[in-house]
Request: fold
Amino acid sequence: MASRRIDEALREARSRIDATDAELLLAHALGASRSWLFAHGGDPLPAELEERFGALVARRGAGEPVAYLVGHRGFWSLDLIVTPDTLVPRPETELLVEVALERLPPARRLRVADLGTGSGAIALALARERPHAHVVATDASSAALAVARANAAHNQLGNVEFRAGDWCAPLGEARFDLIASNPPYIAEGDPHLTRGDLRFEPRAALASGRDGLDAIRRIVRDAPAHLLGGGWLLLEHGYDQGEAVRALLRDADFAEVATRQDLEARDRVTLGQRR
Reply:
């Protein structure tokens, strides 16, 4: 049987999964760019590559994240290696980076911490934009830290230090100008955890207690001991958790407590300043 053309294989895949996902997976299978696909749509697709592409489409159709299937994901100005040991970096987390950069003067030698770094997305984005800063990235997962270290090397960023441990515990006696975190914030019983892409991501990086706020409570409790006077704590959270996180920060005597919304006008990042 003659090989199908690239555009035919792509058209059939688009009927089964999202069109952009289909293009990304076929480009990955071919070792080519998405733009190359459109320029070579009439080319034959070798049988072995069609089989590989078909397997990727089937896995995506079952809900496996595209980032895990292709092994990487763009975030900020970075290309990040991604594995099932880490969350898939999401565009909305770039807001946390933006808010942090607003509070990190570019010319100063600052100390910054990223708690629960995962793939290293936040820590590495801040390290790239603030090359004079020393960024400490922590994670309780040794497998996630291995991915983050690989991403630092892949993106040629040498101003990041990785420490193993839970949240603030690896920070020791150090104090920082800013601490940022995108901790787990989904409630343990949330049905979304059993649907779609979330089924394939590490549960410990997604869910935190009955109301989703256990990790945030711990960070808010422990962070003041690791912040310089006037230092900032920034937390990403769920769209319906802004009020609760603001209350936690105020109860911990943070000043200038505020919540920033994402592009869809949903509460996304709450911050406070150590007095």
Strands lie at 72-75, 78-81, 111-115, 134-139, 160-164, 176-181, 227-236, 254-261, 267-274. Residues 6-62 form one domain. The chain has ten helices and nine strands.
